[in-house]
Amino acid sequence: MRSVVALALLLVMPSAVSASPPVVSVEMSNFKFAPSHVQLPAGVPVVLHLSNVAGGGHNFSAPEFFAAAKLDAQSAALVHDGTVEVPSHGSVDLALVPAEGQFRLKCTHMLHPSFGMKGTITVHR
């Protein structure tokens, strides 16, 4: 009887079970972002998964993007002046709601943008 009641509650209240936001992965290596052109839906919660597969440190610098997005408190604490540091062979997850627009992306470590470590973030409706 209890299982029937529990099942009935789940069917009546589907909003009680919330889906996790989609994960968009960006891989950093020497000297590129993959993908270098990140596409996100505007106003939709997403987890931005940044992974550094290189032996040295990299960062994900997009000040205008982070200024326009809504980040949860834990994620906001990882962003400093629009930049997220990702240690070698490490990863960082950022929960956010992106705002519509086109934003520049680069690694600000010395000469990394010159070697091709740059891209764009396009947030569209």
CATH superfamily membership: Cupredoxins -  blue copper proteins
Oligomer: single chain
Compute the average pLDDT. Answer: 90
Structural class: alpha+beta
How large is the count of helical segments? 3
Q: Which strands sit side by side, in order, in the main sheet?
A: 2-1-4-8-6
CATH fold-level topology: Immunoglobulin-like
Shape: globular
Low-confidence stretches: 3-10, 12-16
Largest sheet: 5 strands, mixed
Compressed to H and E, one letter per element, the order equals: HEEEEEHEHEEEE
- Count of discrete structural domains: 1
CATH architecture: Sandwich
List the helices and strands and how they pair.
Layout: H1 2-12, E1 23-29, E2 32-34, E3 37-41, E4 46-52, E5 58-61, H2 63-68, E6 70-71, H3 73-76, E7 83-86, E8 91-97, E9 101-106, E10 118-124
Parallel strand pairs: 1-4, 3-10
Antiparallel strand pairs: 1-2, 4-8, 5-7, 6-8, 9-10
Question: What key phrases describe this protein's structure?
Answer:
Immunoglobulin-like; 125 residues; 10 strands; single chain; alpha+beta; 3-stranded mixed beta sheet; 5-stranded mixed beta sheet
Written account of the structure:
This protein starts with a helix and ends with a strand. The strands form three sheets. The chain has a five-stranded mixed β-sheet. Strands 3-10-9 form a three-stranded mixed β-sheet. The protein is 17% helix and 42% strand. The chain has one domain (21-124): Sandwich (Immunoglobulin-like). The chain is α+β, with helices and mostly antiparallel strands and 125 residues long.
